[in-house]
Amino acid sequence: MAYALLVVGQIGGLLLVPFGLPGTWLQVLALGLYAWVTDFTTVGWVPIAFAVLLALAGELVEFWLGARYAQKYGGGKRAAWGAILGGIAGAIMGVPVPVVGSVVGAFLGSFVGAAAFELMGNREMRPALRAGWGAFIGRLLATAAKAGIGVAIAAVALLSAVR
Predict the structure, then answer these.
(1) pTM of the model
(2) What are phi and psi of 67, to 5 degrees?
(3) Domain residues for 142?
(4) Is the dihedral of CA 32, 13, 137, 78 positive or negative?
(5) Can you give the C-alpha Rg of the chain in angstroms?
C-alpha cells in the first residue's frame, strides 16, 4: 500500500511540473514520507538527499534558462531579471484560472517581464520584444528540463523503494 502511494505521489508531482507548481518538491515529500512510513528499511537518507539535490537543481535550471535566453536574444541584465520576476508574478497571477492559468501566466509573465525591463533601459520596442521572446523560449525549455528532472526524481524514488 505504501509503495502504491509513493507511485501516486511521483505521478502527481510529475503532472504538476508543467503547470509551474512545485511538483518536484511533492515528489521529494512523497519519498520522505514513504521512507518514514516504512521505517527507512528500503529508502535511506542517501536517495532522499539525492532527490532534494535534484529538486534544487530543477529550481535553479528553471530560473537560469529564462534569464539566459532573454540575454541570448539580445536583452541585458534587466531583461534577465524581468524574465525571472515576470515568470514568478505571472504564475502567481494565473493561479485563479483553472488548469492552465499558472502555465500561461508564467510564460506570459516571462515575456512581459523581460520586454518591460529591457524597454525601461533601452527605450526601443524591437530589442525589448526580442528579449521577451527569448525569455518565453527559455521558460519553455526550463519547463521541459524540470520535467526531465522530475522523471529522474521518480526513478530514484521508485527504484530505491524496491530494493
Answers:
(1) 0.82
(2) -70, -45
(3) 2-162
(4) negative
(5) 18
Residue 64 CA to residue 107 CA, distance in Å, equals: 14
Domain count for the chain, please give it: 1
The number of C-alpha atoms within 13 Å of 28 and in the hemisphere containing its C-beta is 19
21 contact partners, CB below 8 Å, separation of at least 6: 102
Greatest alpha-carbon pair distance for the chain in Å reads 61
Give me the chain's average pLDDT, please: 90
Question: Tens digits of per-residue pLDDT, 118-135?
Answer: 999 877 899 899 999 999
- Contact between 43 and 35 under an 8 Å Cβ cutoff? The reply is yes
- Tell me what pLDDT residue 76 has: 85
Q: Given a cut of 80, is residue 100 above it in pLDDT?
A: no
Q: Are 82 and 116 in contact (CB under 8 A)?
A: yes
First-to-last CA distance in the chain? 16
Please name the residue that has the C-alpha cell 524496491: 162
